[in-house]
Amino acid sequence: MERLSKVMSNYGYCSRRKAEQLIANGKVKVNGKVVKELWTRVEESDLIEVEGRPLEKPEKIYIMLNKPRGVITSTKDDKNRKTVIDLIPIEKRIYPVGRLDYNTTGLLLLTNDGELANLIMHPKNKIEKVYIAKIKGILTKESIKKLEKGIVIEGVKTSRAKVKVRKVNKKKNNSIVELTIYEGRNHQVKKMFKAVGHEVLKLKRERISFLELGNLKSGEFRFLTPKEVKKIYNEVKK
User: Fold this and answer.
1) Do residues 65 and 110 lie in contact, with contact meaning Cβ atoms separated by under 8 Å?
2) Residues in the chain where the model's pLDDT stays below 50
3) Contact present, 130 and 205 (Cβ < 8 Å)
4) Residue ranges of domains in the chain, CATH in brackets
């Protein structure tokens, strides 16, 4: 049996927090009866109705997008800016797995599989997220060690990271650095570099786990193969 709010989230109806609000407000029925208890658990055979409509198990969709600069990682925007959903012309409801900043580019996953999204985003699963950053200045050995050991951001230390300096331009005083992290906190990469005295000029996410952009151009997307989806599940559950 699964918690009702988790099932609603996994079916792609809404976030788990929103599901809990709907349950508390009496908007959800299980087998014809209104339930308001947030700890309610259901079986796969149970009939769930949300706001008067049956909750149907959706076909799972998994998409990889090469997010361009100047696009919002959200399903909608109150300022009418372009969102990542606008780049993917499908009718089924999907949502981004984690976030990329407005001017950050690169690999973004979108799905309606709430379970997989939660598994990828949870720090305990230690899923590698590889970023390529163009930074102002040149990293010292001391700064590299600090990044590798973890940086305290807003009172909480990040997990250990991997750092690889790809290119140094002493004339222009900038560097290209590969940073591998295992979390996805708000503006984490930029804050980590800022903590050691470097401004991020450009940022691109290049890889999540074994998934890479490959030949996917900026703004393009593709569906993941069943084999790739299975491999992700195996990766996060091993």
Assistant:
1) yes
2) none
3) yes
4) 2-54 (3.10.290.10), 62-123+211-237 (3.30.70.580), 128-208 (3.30.70.1560)
What pLDDT is recorded for position 237?
67
How many residues are listed for the chain in this entry? 238
Task: Identify the active-site residue in 46, 78, 86, 101.
Answer: 101
Which one-letter amino acid corresponds to residue 8? Answer: M
Predicted pLDDT at 12: 74
Closest CA to 207 of 236, 174, 177, 180: 180
- Please list, in sequence order, all residues whose beta carbon lies within 8 angstroms of the beta carbon of residue 134, skipping any fewer than 6 positions away: 174, 175, 176, 177, 200, 201, 202, 203
For this structure, is 101 an active site residue? yes
The bridge status of strand 62-67 relative to strand 200-208 is unpaired
Q: What is the pLDDT of residue 201?
A: 98
The verdict on pTM exceeding 0.85 is no
